[in-house]
Design brief:
Hypothetical Protein Pfu-838710-001; 8-stranded antiparallel barrel; alpha+beta
Length: 176
Amino acid sequence: MSMRNVEIKARVHDFDAICKIAEELSGAPPTVIHQNDTFYNVNTGRLKLRMYADGSATLVRYDRDDEQGPKLSNYDLLDFSVNESDKIKTLDKMMKQCLGVRGKVIKERRLYMVDQTRIHIDKVEDLGSFMELEVVLHPEQTLIDGQAIARDLQDKLRVKDEDLINCAYVDLFDKK
């Protein structure tokens, strides 16, 4: 089943300050997650295999317009447990052989939860620090509902519009 969320992504100039605000908003310390994403060449949308430090992985397919501000993302997830490391390696090998690799993104992510929103504060290797909001939409919620929640959190996190970015991290590497 496809899922939907509204996303905002922005550059971060003061990592410690935004983490402090995010922790206050969530009422809890972050979950720190190390992620190694391999993006594959595809005709539409984006496809990546996200590998975690514990050996588990998630195959992620998503479509999202490259535009400033809160935008709708449709996505599908296929999770693999630590016990499926052989399957993960085989899948990665098959995808690389058939599709080719578009790029890799390695990051340390701090995850804070605020109601239905995931606040990610990321340190991306060779790229810098970023903030990403993912407002997971309930079936009855509209894009406008999600945009309002995202903008409210953007304001609370003191993220300026001029710091917003309109693309994925892998696209920023392409522009470097």
